[in-house]
Amino acid sequence: TRTMVACMSALMVAGGVGFTLNAYILYLLRCDIKRLERELMSLRESLLPAPDRTPSSKEDEEDDFQLALESIPSQCSIFQGSEIDCDDMKIPSSDALASKYSELDDTHDSIKHDETKCRESMEGLRALVSDYPASPRLLWRLARVMFEIGKHLSRGGASAKEILTEALEISKQAVELGDSNSKCHLWYAILLGDTCKYDDTKTKLMKGMEFEKHVKKSLELDPYNSTALHLLGRYCFEVSGIKWWEAKIAVTLFGSVPQSSYDEALGYFLKAADLNSEWAENPRFIVKRLGVLGRAQEAATWAVVRGFLRMLAYLFLM
After folding, report:
1. What DSSP string describes 155-177?
2. Contact 118, 112 (CB under 8 A)
3. What is the pTM of this model?
4. pLDDT above 60 (res 300)
5. Exposed/middle/buried for 159, CB within 10 Å: 0-12, 13-18, 19+?
């Protein structure tokens, strides 16, 4: 009897310790979640100040899209798979600017966080474009650095509309001159997406159609570009949640409503993750979209296996 009482007492103590430990772990997890939530809100406020935001009933989704655009990986350093199919990777040795392209790409990552250096790069590129106006490789790089300046302006509370609108026109010229260059199509799509925040619903829908067209063209020319895959996933996700009045406008303008599904969007996000595992925004979308689809356990497993444990917090914050 004494033995049984001792065993029961030990079990109760062990159970109590286990319960206390689990409760403490849960408490720490909740604290971590709250901290992550505060960090996320702070990040959003710093990246998306009020003057540059357009009120919308889909504000959270637009915030997500802007965060994705804010953090896109450097296009100059990505070389995944057979990018030799990309025109920009086949620069002939006779091209007088071949060394200049390399220099611009090698320095882009180091200057993009400094607005002054970005502006110096922009002025240098403007001068080159004035000497070589028919170079699509110069034009998309000019649009890229202007996009970076736009981010700096937005973070500082200033309007980036003027410079981003100009960058959009420059990237369009790049496409017209370099239709076989995947980077030209990609940056035109990126600028289409980034300038949508200044547009009305009709213009947004029209830009959306162009966005899809040029992202797909970029992928056709360079199937290994993870950024293009991610952006196509974003497009599919937005189309899947289109509102009834947006659908009516789309039918009026184009005769039909764009079709996609959340599963199709998720497929593109997963492909992008396979190609580039270092871009944190893409795993965030994967975890959140799996959660939206009611597949929280799959989302948790994916995050653990891929090493994105911090992404689990999004399952609790949804």
Report:
1. HTT---HHHHHHHHHHHHHHHHH
2. yes
3. 0.70
4. yes
5. middle
